[in-house]
Amino acid sequence: MSLPPVLRNLRLPVIGAPLFIISNPELVIAQCQSGIVGSFPALNARPAPVLEDWLIRITETLAAYGEAHPAAPAAPFAVNQIVHKSNDRLQHDLALCVKYKVPIVITSLGARPEVNEAVHSYGGIVLHDIINVAFARKALEKGADGLIAVAAGAGGHAGTMSPFALIAEIRAFFDGPLILSGAIATGGAILAAQAMGADLAYIGSPFIATDEANAPAGYKQCIVESTAADIVYSNLFTGVHGNYLRASIQAAGLDPEALPEGDVSTMNFGGGAAKAWRDIWGAGQGVGSVEAVVPAAARVEKLRLEYLAARDRLGLGGV
């Protein structure tokens, strides 16, 4: 099955992952203008009315860019919707996505047919993130158009399956849009994701260390200074297992080697003074490939050149 039109003709087969708190209009616009899909969580726009302001700004800016650069228009953007019952903004935010015809909606923490139907009503597509095959089947049964396979090593909420196993098992029954997430931080890794059977790569952590990202300077520098050994997997901070930077856990006065279990039923934030959205910093195992804080366009260009070099090494030529 070929990719839907909205995911074709990207300058690099990449979706910039929606980063909680961090992804903002500046980062999304920079990613899209660089030729990859930029995205942000709807909940980043606070309070709720700010979401409409963001959607107006992004859609108008990208449209203007396309008019000025008809030979290389901006890539489409995506909005991430948390469909878990704890999100009391879902209906409000979804209505705005429909109003502004958001091209791609990424759904997380649940799969709901009514959300998919709302996005399909104007011609948008829904990509649902999953960590195992059971969740993948359920998402497709409920009407998702494509899957984001969140494999071991991904930043934030992540699974534990090897990407080789997860992609192979999904491809045994699904030939639609499939995006791979998990420690992808180089152009070679993007090509490897495609070789495994994914259509696109899903990249988050490297974009934390960009000028446009809404992250504290210390967070950005911690990404640069960390390696895979500095990533801790825990469900303490949100109730769902995820990967976090060891230094931020230690700075919050906690022992990374002795973290208690979280409570998924309440989606708690670990208690105490540390708040996951503020003090505990998410990141994936690919951070060791991030060498500096740079503009988002420079990050995409580096990935693109690495991707082309990887193709050349295999005798595949350009894209």
Give a description of the structure.
The chain has 319 residues and is of the alpha/beta class. 35% of the residues lie in helices and 15% in strands. It is built from 11 helices and 11 strands. Strand 4, helix 4 (113-120) and strand 5 (125-130) form a beta-alpha-beta unit. Helix 1 (25-33) packs parallel to helix 2 and helix 7 (187-196) crosses helix 11. It is globular. Mean pLDDT is 93; it is low at 266-273.
Features of the shown structure:
eight-stranded parallel β-sheet, 35% helix, 15% strand, 319 residues, single chain
Any chance you could write out the topology, listing elements then pairs?
Elements lengths: L13 E3 L8 H9 L4 E4 L8 H19 L8 E6 L7 H10 L4 E5 L4 H8 L4 E6 L2 H9 L4 E5 L5 E2 L5 H9 L6 E4 L5 H10 L3 E4 L1 H4 L8 H9 L5 E4 L7 E4 H6 L44 H18 L6
Parallel strand pairs: 1-9, 2-3, 3-4, 4-5, 5-6, 6-8, 8-9
Antiparallel strand pairs: 7-11, 10-11
Helix pairs in contact: 1-2, 7-11
